[in-house]
Amino acid sequence: MKRTSLFASVLAFSLLPTMTALASPPVNVIQAFNPAYGQLPESITADDAGNLYFSMAGAIHKYTTDHQIVQLAAIPVPVQQGASVGGVKVGPEGYIYATVASFNPALSVSSVWRVSPDGQQVNQFVSFPSDSLPNDLVFDPQGNMYITDSSKGQIWKVDQTGKAEVWLTHTLLAGSVEAPVAGSPLGANGIAFDRFRRHLYVMNTDFGRIVRIGFRHGCPHGIKVVTTNDLLKGGDGIAFDVLGHIYVANNGTDRILVVSPFGGSVAVLVDGAPLDSPSSLVFGTAHHDRHTLYVTNFAIMRFNGFKPGAPQPSLVSLPVIFPGLDLVLP
Predict the structure, then answer these.
(1) b/e for 17-51, b at 16 or more Cβ within 10 A?
(2) For residues 123 and 134, what is the distance between their CA atoms, to the nearest angstrom?
(3) According to a count of CB atoms within 10 Å of the terminal CB, is the N or C end of the chain lower?
(4) Topology (CATH level 3) of domain 3-319
(5) What is the DSSP string of 4-22?
(6) pLDDT for 234-266, tens place per residue?
């Protein structure tokens, strides 16, 4: 092990108790949204320039570096009938990619759409079987996409031409038929590469489980449970900091959680309002906000009446000790 890697590992181990023992960091509401207009922000990502992109109300929105929120592009799918724009990521060429899915397979909307940086080009990039539920996505250094399928317990691989294949199917990626947290089985959800792109990490929503998949030359190389914890049940999006802590947005419990890189212990970083079904999170990439975590409050549990109180969808931010891991290799 390199000396720098050893130092980072020791630092991560020694500072985790400090991270979790401190009072919860303040959560700042950047923008509140109106659920009556279907404004429920689901997924969020960042580009290298510091702009943020998030999915909401059948569209991709942009939070610019000068703190303006604009609609970048509408995705032409039947949102009123139950289609939903989900995971978003910026591809290596600067285009924004977004998953579309529905719990109603009769809609046949399961797909990934591609949006140009200026929002002028909006095209379906790849489609999936109607019973698929494409959710989150991530890119490898070669520009291939890996997309979690929450209903089928698998991961799709899509190359740069839009050719799709099942990359991995495994019971550890499947949801729970007996005790689904949201009414329908939700297995593989949030997905992220570790620092050296040697492993893919996947959040299993129903089982509160994070798994690690070996990544060798674009192929899966074994799968292992990192941690299973009741605190993680309802977990959605995930993100890494530079020292290997995994941050989890827990849609079901209104919490942001931190998973230690040593032993997989889980701690609550933020709990309760103004969090409202947080579904996705990303570290800022601009020089001034590398220590800022941005979170989408999906508010879907209160919107659907599964929790008491009025839904409070919003975009929020909170300070964190360590900066985030780069989403794209230089």
Answers:
(1) eebbeeeebebeeeeebebeebbbbbbbbbbeebb
(2) 17
(3) C
(4) Neuraminidase (2.120.10)
(5) HHHHHHHHHHHHHHHHHHS
(6) 999 999 999 999 999 999 999 999 999 988 999
